[in-house]
Design brief:
alpha+beta; Arc Repressor Mutant, subunit A; SH3 type barrels; five-stranded antiparallel sheet; four-stranded antiparallel sheet; 11 helices; 24% strand; WYL_dom
């Protein structure tokens, strides 16, 4: 191999430092058969380059270990942060395995070689046993998420072909206004002029889309504050806004976490608490029903009656 020039040496040096490795000047000398002064100039060139073009990064020297490393001032990804992201991705089951595996590999590749060795055994078993949702097998959600995010930012009007939860094919002209994730699925919140309201569509059920000739003006669209609405929507069923008080004998912390706009009114006895939540009725009813006999709705009366009527209909399903 020909003797490397300064540009080649410094590019090689920068590539290793950017990947998180710590480099000793002696190793750099041995790699390229250069003297100490030349090696020092290479490191100085990297430091000057960072100072001029990437001043959020610094080339630091560890006097104890006698090596150089790149300090991103907290901008890099630590192995703990990487592990959390991967764990959330695995637990969400939101992506097909063919999309998940390259994404996990890309996250791990951002770590130093040593950190990669630490992380891989921790995630190996969970990644190998990952069970994708059946309907995601042929879906490319990563590209769709990016595409619809751009459509939202550009305030486009589109026509979609959509498969409903009842397996009915429909066509709708909509204006996407928000993209969110909840309970395994990504959703597109869109203004639908036909119904004159925002409607939630599951992203993986959008079979095709195209730009629409029928532009929906901004002043016709209904604003949607995703941050505020996410505090109230349960299971992505909006319904009507409602404030509910209920007695609860389950794990209070879990109930309060489920409803971000919530509080404890009082402790009734050692096992029972009176809680209050502000939410939307449809999704909330579904969650309350999932809590077995740990929930007793106190108010409002009409919601309490709806809960009772639903339970009676459920009981009727088991009458022989």
């Amino acid at each position: 191999m020909e003797k490397a020039n300064a540009a080649t040496r410094q590019l090689y040096l920068y590539r290793l430092l950017a990947s998180g490795e710590r480099l000793a000047k002696k190793d750099h000398q041995d790699k390229f058969k250069i003297d100490a002064r030349t090696a020092q100039r290479d490191f100085a060139s990297i430091r000057n380059f960072l100072s001029d073009y990437f001043n959020k990064y610094n080339l630091e020297y560890d006097a104890k270990e006698h090596n150089y490393y790149l300090n991103g001032n907290g901008l890099g990804l630590s192995k703990a942060q990487c592990l959390v992201l991967i764990k959330v991705l695995l637990a969400s089951r939101s992506l097909a395995k063919k999309e998940l595996e390259p994404l996990v590999a890309s996250l791990v590749a951002l770590l130093t070689p040593q950190d990669q060795k630490d992380i891989k055994p921790i995630i190996r078993s969970e990644l190998a046993s990952y069970v994708e949702q059946k309907h995601l097998k042929d879906k490319q959600l990563l590209a769709a998420i990016y595409t619809f995010s751009k459509l939202i930012l550009q305030k486009e009007t589109i026509t979609i072909e959509y498969l409903t939860q009842r397996h009915k094919y429909i066509t709708r002209t909509i204006a996407p206004v928000a993209l969110t994730f909840s309970d395994y699925y990504f959703y597109i919140v869109s203004y639908n002029p036909q119904f004159k309201k925002n409607i939630i569509y599951r992203l993986d059920r959008i079979l095709n889309w195209k730009y629409s000739d029928q532009k929906i003006p901004d002043n016709q669209r209904i604003p949607f504050d995703l941050g505020d609405e996410k505090k109230k929507i349960q299971l992505m069923y909006p319904g009507k806004p409602i404030t509910v008080q209920f007695k609860y004998t389950g794990i209070v912390e879990a109930a309060l976490d489920k409803f971000p706009i919530s509080k404890t009114i009082k402790k009734i006895d050692e096992q029972t608490f009176l809680l209050e939540v502000t939410t939307y009725d449809t999704g909330a009813l579904m969650w309350f029903l999932s809590q077995k006999d740990m929930v007793t709705i106190v108010s409002p009366p009409e919601f309490r009656d709806e809960m009772k009527a639903t339970i009676q209909r459920m009981l009727a399903n088991y009458q022989d």
